[in-house]
Amino acid sequence: MVALAVEPTYRVATLRDHAVVVALLCELIDELGPIESADRIKPLLDGDIRAALRSPQVRIFLAEIGGEVVGLGRADVLVTDPIFRLRDDHRCGYVDQMYVRPLYRAQGVGGELLRRCEDWFREQGIAHSLLHSAPRATRFYARQGYQPNREMFKRL
Description:
Elements: E1 9-12, H1 18-32, H2 38-54, E2 58-65, E3 68-79, E4 91-100, H3 109-123, E5 129-131, H4 138-143
Parallel strand pairs: 4-5
Antiparallel strand pairs: 1-2, 2-3, 3-4
Helix pairs in contact: 1-2
């Protein structure tokens, strides 16, 4: 971690940011460890990120310091099964692909990216947000007001 000499700026990613978004997500995948290697997933990420950057149901927010992208957060509008009705329109916000480079953590960058995702959900008329968290990030999300829920995972 380094003390921020310059305040981060935040913006919505565009198609021109495709390569940097994929590179950051590869860093995230490598950091998370054993599920898959970034090299194997990169071809899938390429298409997914291109589609996300074109979708009106997705926003990817970037944090920049001195022209370097140091973090990102993805906000997706999901249509939920009516049995899990959160609102009459069955939509909820899904926070995904939150990542801040290690040198810039614990300085408010992740919190601001998350707030921007949540603000965008509110602009869409969405009142609930959910996410999946790596174990080491659960304290961060709890501080932001998220409550834990339990899901089970099995690789097939």
